[in-house]
Amino acid sequence: MSSFSTPAAATFALSKEQAHAIVEKHITTQVKPVVWQVTEMDSIGYSYSSSARTYVVDLAPPEHSAPSASCFIVLKSPTVPDPLDSYFPNALPVVHKLLSQIHSNTDIPIADPILDTTRTLLPYDILFCPPSPITYGNFISLANARKSGLLTAQDAALVDLQIGAFFGQLHSRVQNDWFGAPQLGEPADPSYSWQETFALLLETLLAELEVAGVVLPYADIRRHLARAIAFFLFDDVEVPSLVWLTGSEDDVYIALPSHPATKSHGIAAILPNAAHALWGDPLLESFFLPPAPSAAMLEGYIESGGAPLIVFPRQKTKRIWYSLFLGLLTLKERRSSSVEMDQQPALDLIQKSVETLADAPLY
């Protein structure tokens, strides 16, 4: 679970009028729903991206006095930086492609999205997720549900089992031929080595933060990395799986008892945040950040097609590297924000990971 504080307001927002225009354009039924309210989803977890915002839009049938459905809308800056220069989030067309693959190949509750890059309604690329029969007031993030004590032990085990099953399906059913950042087409020089890919991604983040003047133990990290590479630590990954990477309990929503269809606190929605998804090692998921996964999550994962995550001590060391990578990526994104963001949890994760790597086994 991430522990970042709530950020300040975004520098751009989605009004009811703008949301209405998007709904009018992309819902093709003859009778159009009415936009009831627009709520920006708090980007307080690892999935925060400085160039994108996610909104939930409550919808009501015409002449009704209350909303009965909602949809997600993602807005993203259309700027596409040169990926050779730095580490950048996935462009929205790439996110759309990934979400469509997830929708087609798994039971994960993500609607098949509609991509709008015309910028005729707004100066942003738009991802529109079709409505589902639950409204904003009837669900809560899994992170907040745990903090508020809303979940019984049985509820928590059920949710963990569901999450594990979803990741088991994701990693076994949505796969690729090469490792690295997703693209709309085939890369000119595809990588078939996860060790080479991960080392390059990590070094790219390190170089960017170092140039920016961020004080980190760069020499220690690079020394540990050279040793890990010499022991082929990351070379045990043969098939590139789609890894959500930054998805956390802040991005997973469960239904509240107030919803008429709710019989248990099951997963009701997952935010369409795939800005940092990549083709890589399933162990990279932030949901597997120690002490996770729970026994229930691991059970659901294995039963739904996932392979055992940690068998040997060296794989625990590999997971430490992935925690370090997550900390670096989160720090980079929060430093890129136009509003003040809480960076301390990312710095703490980096420091803890580097300290642990000093004595971590490579056998």
UniProtKB/TrEMBL annotation:
Organism name: Hypholoma sublateritium (strain FD-334 SS-4)
Domain of life: Eukaryota
Protein name, UniProt field: Aminoglycoside phosphotransferase domain-containing protein
Native organism taxonomy: Eukaryota, Fungi, Dikarya, Basidiomycota, Agaricomycotina
